[in-house]
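Fold Annotation — chain and its backbone
Encoding — discrete vocabulary of local shapes
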Amino acid sequence: MTLDESIQIKLGASRVLVAEDNLVLGELLRFNLERAGLRVAVAINGRDAIEQLRLEPFDLLVTDYEMPIFNGEQICDAARRELNLRIPIVMCSAKGLELDFRKLNERYSIAKLLQKPFSMSELTYLVKTLLREPVHFENLCT
């Protein structure tokens, strides 16, 4: 088995949760990540995202910042503090310039903050890269 084949097998087993309240964007994210060989679930609000994280094992979380019921920061807080998850998190926001990435990273070890609109190929590449590489959580507050 080649290195590329073993990476593809690992990625194919990877589960990604997409928390996105825009139904069209959520399905577009699902389509592109599944096309890249990943298994994807979509949550349309913060409560649903936290519940899915609680009930199912995921390898990576992609979350919008502005979500109904619980926002992206509250989802990250629940993932890290309540559920003690050590998975990469990618946050997306139309308010990317207004958010303090350094503060979010210090609190929740956010892997990347993507400003909307973003390229689907950029997000797919980022997700695949994060799933291949070990993630360090030394900045994570408990």
